[in-house]
Amino acid sequence: MLHTGPMTAGAGRRSQATLVFAKGGGKTVLTRQTVPYPFHITRLFQLHPQKPDLATLFLQSASGGLYRADRLGLDIEMRGEAHAHVTTQSATVVHDTGASPARQETRLDLASGSLLALQPDPLVLFPGAALELDTRIVLDRGASAIVTESFASHDPRGEGRPFESISIALEITDRSGRRLATENAVVHGEDFAGPSSPLGSYRAYGSMLILATEAALPDINELHDAMGAANCLGGASRLPNNAGLSLRLLAPDGGHLARGLDAAFATAFKALSGLQPGRRRK
C-alpha cells in the first residue's frame, strides 16, 4: 500500500498521513489532507454518476517498497454521511528488513451514516521481510465499512526462500470505547510457505472485514460463491457483538488472491452501497 526508498542499516522512515472526508454540496469531499512523503494521493474521482456522494481516492507513492525499520501511519476520518472508496495503485513489496521489522499503523474513525471501503492491493513479502500491521477502528452505530488486508510470499530468485514474519493486530471499538472485536496473530514465513507448511500449495492470504448492521450485510453464501469462482479457498463468519462479518481467503499466488478479494469486495460493496464498484484503472 505504501512505498519507501531504500534505507541504511538501522535507519527507517517515519511518516504519518491523515485524510478527513465529509459530505458537502451533495458530494463527499476531502476537508483535510496531510500526505507527507512517501504518501501521495490523486484527486477525488466520481466513478458512480448515479451516486455523486461516493468518492474514489487512489493512495500512491513513487518509491520502491517497505524497508527495515520503516514506520508508516494512515489515519482516515469519515464524518457523517461521507462515502468513500480508498484504494491503491499497485501491490507493495516488503524487502528484507533484517532485525528491524517495518510497521504500518492504520486508524479509522467512522461516524454514523458514513461508508468507507478501504481496499489496498496485496503486500508482497520478499525473503527476510518482517512486517507489523496494526489496525484500530472506531465504529459509530449506523456506520459501514469494508476493510481488506492481504499478503503473498514471493522469492524473486525462485528458490523458495520464506519471508521472516508478519504480525497482525486488530481492534474494533464503538464510540464509547467498548471493544467489539479484536485479533492478534503472528505468522512465520517458514510455517506459511516452507516445505512442511500445512497450507500445501497456498502462498497467499487475505482477510476482509464487512462492518455494518445485520440488515445491510451481504449473504454469506454469495460471498463463498464469489471467492470459490476465483479459485480461492475462503470462508466467512460473524464477528462478535453484531459488528459484521469477517472473511478469510487462501490462494496459490498473489494474482488469484487479488481476484478472489475483488470478487468478494464487489459482493460486499453492492450490499452496502447498492452499486457495483467503479472500474479502478491502474
From TrEMBL:
Query: Coiled-coil segments, which residues?
Result: none
InterPro entries (alphabetical): UreD
Q: Where is the signal peptide?
A: none
Q: Where in the cell is it found?
A: Cytoplasm
Q: Does the keyword Cell inner membrane apply?
A: no
GO CC annotation, single: cytoplasm
Q: Which UniProt keywords apply?
A: Chaperone, Cytoplasm, Nickel insertion
Listed GO molecular functions? nickel cation binding
Entry keyword Cytoplasm: yes
The entry assigns this protein to a family as follows:
Belongs to the UreD family.
How is this protein organized at the quaternary level?
UreD, UreF and UreG form a complex that acts as a GTP-hydrolysis-dependent molecular chaperone, activating the urease apoprotein by helping to assemble the nickel containing metallocenter of UreC. The UreE protein probably delivers the nickel.
Role = Required for maturation of urease via the functional incorporation of the urease nickel metallocenter.
PANTHER family, per the entry: UREASE ACCESSORY PROTEIN D (PTHR33643:SF1)
Q: What is this protein called?
A: Urease accessory protein UreD
